[in-house]
Design goal:
Number of helices: 14
CATH class of one domain: Alpha Beta
Cofactor: FAD
Structural class: alpha+beta
Family: Belongs to the FAD-binding oxidoreductase/transferase type 4 family.
Pfam family, one: FAD-oxidase_C
Helix content: 25-40%
Strand content: 15-25%
CATH topology of one domain: Uridine Diphospho-n-acetylenolpyruvylglucosamine Reductase, domain 3
Protein name: Oxidoreductase
CATH architecture of one domain: 2-Layer Sandwich
Keywords: FAD, Flavoprotein, Oxidoreductase
Order of helices and strands: HEHEHEEEHEHHEEHEEHEHEHEHEHEEHH
Number of strands: 16
């Protein structure tokens, strides 16, 4: 990066919010898993939407690429720069406004963490509809950019369904402020929907209006164990459309074993597969839960929690998985969306693929089975670049054969851009490129993401 651009950026955001320190940049150029690294020229931390817009103008005029970073929890290297980019961090855009308890909404900065939004909602007696294990780090701007799902998607939907309005700094340096006081605004193009899921390729989300929900009066949590994955999926199909469903999570026994070994939290039930079920609402769902499980093909008695402390214990294994997986080094991650009818086929074939390509690796499968959104993680997977590429390609082909999408709640990022056409037709991709060119004709914003 030339001195003129560095001075211009410092004039916009202040000297202390621009860094070219190699050590600082090195820490910002590695992805959340620690598996993928890039290189950047500078880090810039704007403090307002106008500053974001000015930074974008300066970088565009200088012909320098920009990679946008929030909490950097992307699992597909979506925040890893590839072109000596300027890293634009939203971390200072972290304000959380006053909760409107009547309209059940709140305006927040894109750099606000999910945990901060959840705290504000809880203090107002409400609930924010998206929850992730990375809640303390993940930012709502990044979550909107990838249309994140998470632990409560089966009840409340993905991040896009929580967005009522937003502010976006466009690649040309202008700012779109799309806010409305009405809950359903059908005036003109749905611009908010266009930027949600765009992974920062069309603009930088700087603030959002978020929908909040009433707090359920009753909640019950259960974990049921199964020896057979088909049996688990049969129960999952029944619960995913059940009245009051709040969470429906699949955990395999390998994940439970790792959690028991490294965190000291053992599985609550026996079985090769476990299903965490949570029901919530204005009425008590204890009896419907018991009736639904009475005739299921379980490996033993389910564990049930009706009080808060027991419910937290039942959630511990699921919550701890992501951290435990890193004990053996950076895992190789596959985020996949599948029809429930092909999950058994995928689980079996994926295990065979791993044994063929990386026999020393431990495959761990878990995720949001209500939506067929699963996370396959390969622990202790140490492959050179060519072997990893071969395994990755084979796994993407398997997902396509199982009629799934190669990307789900984590986005495409840089890791999956070569496989986009497995889930989108050539015409789809061409139309997406037209939209990208319309907003960013110079192609300088998040250039490594989504498209090759």
């Amino acid at each position: 990066m030339n001195d003129a651009l560095a001075k211009r950026l410092a004039a916009i955001v202040g000297d202390r919010h621009v860094s070219t320190d190699p050590d600082v940049l090195a820490g910002r150029c590695v992805d959340y898993t620690g598996r993928y690294r890039g290189h950047a020229a500078a880090l810039v931390r704007p403090g307002s939407d106008d500053e974001v817009a000015a930074v974008l103008r300066a970088c565009r005029d200088a012909g320098v690429c920009v990679t946008v970073q929030g909490g950097r929890t992307s699992l597909v290297a979506g925040t890893v720069p590839e072109h000596d980019d300027v890293l634009l961090s939203t971390e200072r855009l972290c304000a959380v406004g006053e909760v409107d308890v009547v309209e059940r909404r709140v305006r927040v900065g894109a750099g606000a963490t999910l945990a901060a939004v959840q705290r504000a909602a809880t203090e107002a007696g409400l609930v924010f509809g998206v929850d992730l294990a990375a809640r303390d780090s993940a930012t709502v701007g990044g979550m909107a950019s990838t249309n994140a799902g998470g632990l409560r998607t089966v009840r409340y939907g993905n991040m896009g369904e929580q967005v009522l309005g937003l502010e976006v700094a466009l690649p040309d340096g202008s700012v779109v402020r799309r806010h409305s006081e009405v809950r359903s605004d059908n005036t003109g193009y749905d611009l908010a929907a266009l930027f949600v899921g765009a992974e920062g390729t069309l603009g930088v989300i700087t603030a959002l209006d978020l929908r909040l929900h009433p707090t359920p009066a009753h909640r019950i949590t259960a974990i049921a164990g199964f020896d057979d994955l088909d049996a688990l999926l049969a129960v999952g199909r029944e619960f995913r459309d059940a009245d009051g469903i709040a969470a429906l999570e699949l955990i395999d026994a390998r994940a439970s074993a790792l959690t028991a070994e490294h965190v000291g939290v053992g599985p609550a039930v026996d079985g090769a597969w476990q299903l965490l079920i949570e029901l919530a609402g204005d009425v008590d769902h204890t009896d419907p839960l018991a009736e639904a499980l009475e005739h299921a093909d379980l490996a033993g008695e389910p564990a049930v929690g009706v009080d808060g402390a027991t419910q937290l214990r039942l959630w511990q294994v699921r919550e701890a998985i992501a951290d435990v997986l890193g004990v053996y080094g950076p895992p190789l991650k596959f985020d996949v969306s599948l029809p429930l009818s092909t999950i058994v086929e995928f689980a079996s074939a994926a295990t065979e693929l791993v044994a063929e390509h990386a026999p020393e690796a431990i495959p761990v499968l878990f995720g949001h089975v209500g939506e067929g959104n699963l996370h396959l993680n390969l622990v202790r997977c140490r492959l050179d670049e060519d072997r990893e590429r071969a395994l990755y390609a084979a796994m993407m082909a398997l997902i396509a054969r199982c009629h799934g999408n190669v990307s789900s709640e984590h986005g495409v990022g840089t890791r999956k851009r070569d496989y986009l056409t497995m889930s989108r037709t050539d015409a789809d991709v061409a139309a997406m490129r037209v939209v990208k060119t319309a907003f960013d004709p110079d192609g300088y914003l998040n250039p490594a993401v989504l498209f090759d």
